[in-house]
Amino acid sequence: MKRNRKAKILATLGPSSSSPEVIEALFNEGCDVFRLNFSHGSIEDHRKNCQAIRKLEKKYNHATCILADLQGPKLRIGIFKDDKIQLKKGQGFTLDLITTPGDQTRVNFPHPDIYDILTPNTEILVNDGRVKLQVIEQSKDELKTEVLNDGVISNNKGINIPGIILPISSLTTKDKSDLNKAIEMGVDWVALSFVQTSKDIAELRKIVSNNVSIMAKIEKPSAVKNIDDILNASDGVMIARGDLGVELPTEKVPVIQKNIINRCRDFGKPVVVATQMLESMIDHYTPTRAEASDVANAIYDGADAVMLSGESAIGQYPIESVITMNKIIESVEKDKNNFDLAIHEEKIRQKTISTTDAITSAAYTVARNAEAKAVVTFSVSGNTALRMAKERAPVLGIGLSPKIKTARKLQLVWGVHSCHIKDAKNTTEMVQIACSVIKEKKLGLPGDTVVITAGVPFGNAESTNLLRIAKIIDDKDLT
Fold first, then answer.
1. How far apart (Å, rounded) are the C-alpha atoms in residues 338 and 394?
2. 220-245 per-position pLDDT tens digit
3. Is 286 a catalytic residue?
4. For 206-214, what is the mean pLDDT?
């Protein structure tokens, strides 16, 4: 399934997009990665969606990626006698461990392990920051606060506590159960919510080993502070701007987004920009101009992928949302100013590089000078394809892997047209496979030149040491 763009699209599946027919339409219109949101829906719903996606993979002979997004430890208050209350600026309000329904003066906050670390003057945000509370007095079973602004709060609303590393794991009991089910379903990526430090990633890595790739969701100030350690520990990150925009001043989020994208590129790790990208399309056929610019700017910044959440999960126009996002990306990538490698190449020159780095950098240079149609990477682990994507080269990138799990996970990566192939036994067979795939997938034509990288001996991970130039010919030998 050829895409006419390099940045990828993630679409969240939900009530609006859980039929096999809609999932196939999303795929045909441009969805590269399907997100299963374990905060909503039943395990059986997610299993059926996985089965539908894998059937598409076989039908179109196209490795297809699935991301399982774990709910994480979302802090919530309890319920109220009348479902909601109106708070006034300056009044007192108490969070406590009493389980009876709340009223105008108090509500249950069932997280006793947090009480001890919330000192006076700590700010607590309720309902995505719409109501702000300041701790006045703290004890082991209650938090007395002052209300800082007028506002309404209702049953089970979420709580954010900015600027504090909370003594809770990013993996809840529910997450561990969901994780086991997701691995059984054969997902390719797992997104870990509310990551605070690299220790959260290490905890998840112990459970999943190398069975799936780990994506750290950056939605807390502590994660922004520890971004380099988190990047070292994870396989990629998602900039989850919803909670991040609650816990940090709104004006800081665009700067943080740009900086994290740059760091991800330095580390050679894929990065997804998420939340409210085309949110008005939940109810409307077209997005706002500001939303279109938001998607475009994420592509200009160099994001590997952009994500649809409610737009495709619960919105009225899930298919149209993918079509719109696809058009925006294609439009940006036609802009010659979208590819600016000068600063990045200077950074590369300043570092000691590995053999793989040298080969992939040389492959791009050769492709540019030879006006090659594509750069083809043979990779068992996918790391060579990731390294090529780091170049952000304006040439078709084709990632070939004998491992289906590698081919699937690479669908999330910028500029990589990922394919599952049989392993090559020698250089001649390598060239034959590469040219065959290009012709079969209609990625090139007879007469086109391609640059191929691989590792010798074949089939070994982390051994890229070969660069070959080949020409596609209209012949059975294909070499």
1. 9
2. 999 999 999 999 999 999 999 988 99
3. no
4. 93
CA 325/CA 12 separation, integer angstroms: 13
The helix or strand, by DSSP H or E, that contains position 297, with its residue range, turns out to be helix 289-301
Spatial CB neighbours of 211, under 8 Å, sequence gap ≥ 6: 183
**Which listed residue (275, 356, 384, 453) is catalytic?**
275
CATH topology of domain 8-73+169-333: TIM Barrel (3.20.20)
From the candidates 8, 35, 106, 392, give the one annotated as an active-site residue: 35
Q: Are 423 and 450 in contact (CB under 8 A)?
A: no
Are the C-beta atoms of residues 281 and 321 closer than 8 Å to each other? yes
The residues spanned by each domain of the chain are: 8-73+169-333, 75-160, 342-471
pLDDT band, very low/low/confident/very high, at 343 (cuts 50, 70, 90): very low
Q: For the whole model, what pTM was predicted?
A: 0.89
Catalytic site includes residue 54: no
Is 35 noted as a catalytic residue in this protein? Answer: yes
**Residue linked to tokens 């409210």:** 276
Residues in a beta bridge with 471: 449
The beta-strand segments (E) located in 211-316 are: 213-218, 236-240, 271-274, 305-308
Homologous superfamily of 75-160: PK beta-barrel domain-like (2.40.33.10)
Signed CA dihedral, 390, 392, 393, 396: sign only = positive
Which residue among the candidates 3, 55, 76, 327 is catalytic per the annotation?
Answer: 76
Q: Which two tokens stand for residue 85?
A: 């209350």
**Cα–Cα dist 65/406, whole Å:** 10
Using left for φ > 0, alpha for ψ between -120 and 50, and beta otherwise, residue 342 falls in: alpha
Instruction: Count the Cβ atoms, other than its own, within 10 Å of residue 454.
Output: 25
Which architecture, in CATH terms, is 342-471? 3-Layer(aba) Sandwich (3.40)
Q: How confident is the model over 32-54, as a mean pLDDT? A: 96
DSSP label of 449: E
- Cα Rg for the chain, rounded, in angstroms? 24
pLDDT at 123: 94
For this structure, is 100 an active site residue?
A: no
**Most distant CA atoms of the chain, gap in Å:** 81
